[in-house]
TrEMBL record:
<protein>
    <submittedName>
        <fullName>Glycoside hydrolase family 16 protein</fullName>
    </submittedName>
</protein>
<dbReference type="InterPro" id="IPR013320">
    <property type="entry name" value="ConA-like_dom_sf"/>
</dbReference>
<dbReference type="GO" id="GO:0016787">
    <property type="term" value="F:hydrolase activity"/>
</dbReference>
<keyword id="KW-0378">Hydrolase</keyword>
Length: 248
């Protein structure tokens, strides 16, 4: 899969423009996005509501795309990336397999526009057709509070979740980059190792990545009650501007 967003609309054979809709609904999880000048822009405008309002803590707002979607019937606990024990499906979803990978290279070239209460991320997560197939490979994760004029802490690594075979190993790596400028973030999975690169330079190498189908997740987040939140009148629009995404 290679998407340089040259077409006027989102390729719906690859992308679902919602964030984990089973725990909420398609209507309430629709991403704020547009495509122009061969770029995808995910953003969170001031009027966008909370995700899973009244249930998810801390409160968050999110615009995200994903290349897979799997969950059980309404009332079941079968679903991707549950955020608490006992979470139940609120809206039945159609199974979607837009792009799932086990080996190869996944990455994006993107610019991040964040404030101190927002973050952006690209990660791979198990399709979770079985609960233990839930591990995460975080390609990149940046919080606005960790961004300087020409440096940033870029998170990358593994989150085990319900995968008993995956070792938790996540690190925020200091890099001398301006994340507002376009940079390429990618991971290569060969079955034995996960090699993380930024602009072609190897930053981390981890052993024993997940060995099952993984879907891409791409999103920008806002945390209204973060310690650095500036209140209801906050007008800043967190934006993730993506030039291209690849999974080869």
């Amino acid at each position: 899969m290679f998407d340089d967003f040259d077409e006027p609309g989102l390729d719906r054979s690859v992308w679902l423009p919602h964030y984990l809709p089973a725990w909420s609904s398609l209507a309430a999880t629709r991403a704020s996005h547009l495509i122009h000048d061969s770029h995808l822009e995910l953003s969170i405008p001031p009027e966008q509501g909370l995700w899973c309002e009244g249930d998810h803590e801390p409160p968050l707002r999110v615009s995200g795309l994903q290349t897979g979607n799997f969950s059980g019937p309404v009332g079941s606990t079968i679903g991707q990336q549950p955020y608490r024990d006992g979470l139940r499906v609120r809206e039945e979803q159609q199974e979607f397999r837009g792009c799932l990978i086990e080996r190869g290279t996944v990455g994006m070239r993107a610019s991040l526009y964040l404030d101190r209460r927002s973050m952006a991320s690209l990660w791979l997560v198990g399709f979770e057709d079985r609960p233990e197939r839930s591990g995460e490979v975080c390609v990149m994760e940046v919080f606005g509070r960790d961004v300087g004029e020409d440096d940033a802490l870029v998170g990358m690594g593994f989150h085990a979740f319900r995968d008993p075979r995956l070792a938790e190993d996540f690190e925020r790596v200091p890099l001398q980059i301006d994340v507002r400028e376009p940079h390429a973030y990618e991971v290569h999975l060969d079955g034995d190792e996960a090699t993380f690169r930024v602009d072609g330079r190897v930053v981390r190498i981890l052993d024993a990545p997940p060995q099952y189908p993984l879907q891409l997740m791409l999103a920008v987040f806002d945390f209204p009650e973060a310690p650095d939140a500036v209140g209801a009148g906050h007008a800043f629009v967190p934006t993730l501007s993506v030039d291209r995404v690849w999974a080869t």
